TrEMBL record:
Domain Fe2OG dioxygenase: 136-250
Database matches in InterPro entries: BesD/HalB-like, Oxoglu/Fe-dep_dioxygenase_dom
Tree of life domain: Bacteria
Record-level Gene Ontology MF annotations: metal ion binding; oxidoreductase activity
Gene3D superfamilies (UniProt xref): q2cbj1_9rhob like domain
Pfam family, one: HalD
Family: Belongs to the iron/ascorbate-dependent oxidoreductase family.
Protein name: ArpA protein
């Protein structure tokens, strides 16, 4: 039997079933205030306690479907550019050791998939993010992913391409694997290379916040302006998190090049640029 989304979510705290109601408005106001202050808001225990083990087990059962290929990246995910001066943060590269399970490999009945497509969930998120509407991506791979950080691996410092990120820890490592972020270290007007460079070389710890997360917590985050990472996972248990990607526009699909980097493949939805050869057809 499929469980309704309003049964998965702790609706006593987050009344998804009552858009615009008193509890809804209270929850939304508190998220908005936190996003303004720090670019990050955690909706603690968003998934009701009785569903948290299923949430963990479902994602763990598909973790081996992730695409593993360690890549050398910089914080901006830009191509190497030797013409930049030595001090420039874009010159510093690290190994990105996390791996993503693609949306098409996540069964439709899994809790995270049901949340991802749910209209009340969309409406609630849009309200929290102060947007008229948000839309799931039309991308069969990048729309919803499980981010796997195995023991000994890390998801290094970076900025996101999207202005906002919605994610949920589903499995907690025994130690390490901490989400760390620097609230609004840059803005649309200012890159602030000096501070970014300091943090990615291990300094500037006074700017860094560590975020304790538990499975079932929902996180809203302004990843385009707040530098962030998942520190190296220690112990035997991998860190798993679901990442729900939305856009202000309907119909968004990632570029073929970026898709291939992240998933090792593309689909028909990624268009004709998906070819790997230079033949006419
Ligand atoms: O897994 C997480 O909690 C963070 C993931 C992340 O920063 C990303 O995928 O851009
Ligand atoms: Fe990110």
């Amino acid at each position: 039997m499929t469980v309704a989304v309003t049964d998965i979510v702790d609706t006593a705290r987050y009344p998804l079933h009552d858009p615009g109601g008193e509890g809804w408005v209270r929850a939304v106001e508190s998220v908005r205030a936190e996003l303004r202050e720090s670019g990050c808001s955690v909706l603690r225990d968003f998934v009701a306690a009785e569903h948290r083990e299923a949430l963990r087990a479902e994602c763990a059962s598909i973790a081996d479907r992730a695409y593993y290929e360690e890549q050398t990246v910089n914080v901006y995910n830009t191509a190497p550019d030797d013409s930049l001066p030595d001090w420039h943060p874009a010159r510093r590269t690290t190994l990105r050791g996390n791996a993503f399970v693609a949306r098409e490999d996540i069964p439709a009945e899994h809790l995270i998939h049901r949340l991802y497509t749910d209209e009340l969930f969309h409406r609630f998120l849009a309200d929290c993010l102060e947007r008229p509407q948000i839309h799931p991506l039309e991308d069969p791979l990048a729309g919803l992913v499980v981010n796997i950080v195995n023991p000994g691996k890390e998801h290094p410092w970076h900025f996101d391409t999207n202005e906002f990120a919605v994610s949920m820890l589903t499995q907690q490592p025994r130690s390490g694997g901490v989400f760390e972020y620097c609230p609004h270290i840059r803005s649309a007007e200012s890159e602030n290379f000096a501070d970014v460079g300091e943090v990615i070389t291990g300094g500037g710890r006074d700017r860094v916040r560590e975020l304790p997360l538990r499975p079932g917590d929902l996180q809203l985050f302004h990843g385009r302006y707040s530098l962030h990472r998942v520190s190296a996972v220690a112990g035997e248990v991998a860190r798993h998190s679901a990442i729900f990607a939305y856009s202000d526009r309907p119909g968004v699909v990632g570029s073929a090049e970026r898709t291939r980097q992240l998933f090792g493949r593309v689909t028909a939805a990624h268009g004709t640029t998906a070819r790997t050869d230079d033949l006419l057809d």
